[in-house]
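Consider the following assembly input.
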Amino acid sequence: MRVGIIGAGTMGVVHAAAWGTTGAQLAGCFSARKSQCDQLAELHKIQSFSRYPDLLEQVDIVDICTPTATHKSMVMEAARAGKHVLCEKPVALREEDAKEMIDTCEKAGVRFFVGMVVRFFPQYRLARDLVTEGRIGNVTVLRLRRISYPPQKSTDNWYIDEDCSGGMIVDLMIHDFDFARWLAGDVQRVFARRGRGDDGVAQYSQTILRFSSGAIGLIEGGWVYPPGIFRTGFDLSGTDGLIEWSSDQPDPVSILRSREVDLPDAVGLPDSGLSDDPYALEIRHAYEAIRTGKPFDVTAEDALRSLRIALAARESLETNLPVEL
Amino acid sequence: MRIGILSFDHLHAENYQDKLRKIPDVELVGFSHENQREGAEYAARFGLRWFQTHSELLAAGLHGAIVCSTTSNHRELVELSAIAGVHVLCEKPIATDLADAEAMRDVCTKHGVHFMTAFPMRFASSAVALRAIVQKGDLGKILGINGVNHSEIPTAHREWFGDRALAGGGAVMDHTVHLVDLFRWILNVEIAEVYAEIHSGLCVSPMNVETAGLLLLTFPSGMHASIDCSWSRPASYPRWGHLKMEVIGEKGAVAMDSFAEYVTLYSPGASRNPSWVGFGPDPNQAMIEAFIKVIRGNRKPPVTWEDGYEALKVALAAYQSGELQRPVKVTGAGHRRDR
């Protein structure tokens, strides 16, 4: 199958590399930013398209890695052209949009995969497997953390524009809202607090979830640490046990050297150590499911429900009240 | 100086008796405990003189007493001590309701004895260091605080922790007050509002108290802080639990893990294997020494009745929030305290 990458920014580059681990053929890329698109095309020896419809004619699958605000139009156009769609998270900025995207793909008879990549991080998958096996009994209190630094892109920093990315809660915390749902089922009530720096970008939020099962969860998210620092972790307690993991734990290989000043990446991505690259696992899974007609491990409906929690958290900030789902 | 321990109901009495013995010129006169079987057992185990009634211990002549009864019984013992003219160090939470707490303040004022609340974490070197960093202002504007006070379910050590009538509640009552006190002490401001989700299901055997809670507190400035007060560490955890805090500011963050100084011990016969054995100073030692100084110098306690009272108010507001499923205002919040 032939694949087109849409968007040549942080995620476009990562996804293009991940496709190289599948049996699919990377056919071309398209981006509104011509020079980035040409660079990516050059790197993978593929065609750089200057029009989206032209690319659509040449591929079977599109992988949409553009800013979130553009996801809807990109997905709809691809679906109408009869192409299978992979789309970066968050699926969209509004629930109605996400629903429309799901419906359109369904009607067009194309597969629609949303990249909730945390489900492909090996430690997160292991934790979920342990929970599913009943190793800690029923999950009762979960704590999830994902604190990064403010996005550093020197130009076109669309992440910090809430109308474009949904902001930190929708863009970043959605990962743990999704993981929380995967572990403990549907969320019934959401209450959130957030502190913001004077620049309006630096921010830290803590959100309390109450699940339909009765379980409770504290989700921490932030664009707040000094550039280059990104910490994640989970602490899952159950009626019969506990699972702890933190990115503070030592890596399998540590380089010991005098401290140098390294320029951080524009956007922090969590490191998965020496294990399989989660982005490659994600893309391989989506590709195999499309190729064989098997179901996805994480559905577009899951992505929609995680978005709903993130939007409820934002609403709670506005109303100062818990939001019932 | 003559000190006694009023009741061994609270587990911490076991630690306090050890710390008292390490202070020069302090005589641990003994302890009172009105359950005969338990009293005899503790007397034998710790080699302490046992008084079968609290009045007998107070009649032996004390300068100060540490009240370690069930929380619901604090008021009675504080009243007995105050009337006997004995200064009080009272275990936390100071009471199960505000009326009892206020009565304790009144009786101590009336009889001119000092009342100190037992918040040992203020004396932990980690908390002292964290406070200094925050107060220096290096973190810039504070955007939020994450607080964790986890432990195992304490009913294996003392059953009454699982009895609402005696303890006033479960995990929320037991753990909220420590972090609330640290927040108030570090930021020098009261808590305005509390939101809580409370959970009762961490225990297999039925208890009539909650075993877990997640709180989001809001300060008058709008700044927020969380408290995870859950009894969510399994009995097999390498230690009873932990106390952690991360203060996140615009210009940096500071993370505290108060019990991070430990060695890992693997010992097949031990109740926890492995177990994290702590080193470094025990904050209880400094707290008790501070109490002794209060008595010696007849000075205001470094942790006051008001500190215990304000922390209790937040815990009670958390229960109210959990029931109403909305944020609850903490009455009288927002004033800077007189220091």
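Chain B has two domains: 2-113, 121-329. Ask yourself how this observation constrains the way the partners meet.
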